Amino acid sequence: MRAKITYTVTAAVLVFYFVLAGSRGVLLIRHGTLLTVTFGVAVLILPLIGIWFLWKNTQFVRRANALAAELDAEGGLPVDDLARTPSGRIDRDSADAAFTRRQAETEDTPDDWRCWFRLAVAYQDARDTPRARKAMQRAIALHNTGTRPPSRPDTAGPADAPGRSDTSSPNVTSGPSGTSSPSGV
Description:
The chain is mainly alpha-helical. The chain has 5 helices and 2 strands, in the order H-H-H-H-H-E-E. The longest helix has about 40 residues, at about 35-75.
């Protein structure tokens, strides 16, 4: 709940800033000289980019929350049983072990959005936010296409060993702490 309040307050402050900057841009354009019109257009572009960025992030958060609610209703949300440091942060070794499990699960069923969602959580627990976001985007895309989990293929190969990056395989990239991760992230 605290994160939602923080996000809402930040978004409201940004919208206020965008309106303020936009009104200054309009005033510059109304002044009518070549220089002020040029500056006015430049000032208007920045709030437009900011509004677009805020909108895209809000869509992402709403879609990710919808997936979380659906996964929770199915009883498939990952359990937060990771070890913590005295300061409350997730222990790195515990996060890496959870990541390895989620990675193997995702490699076994790469078309299941649920696996990608849980992999995104594992990336976030391992403090790899860019890959967590990409994995969540993949989960959202798979959910939107209506892909259901296929039966497990008997020909699936073993996952790479933790700490080893296999650059010869096009389907594997380096994950948090040097472990490998499925492609698409």
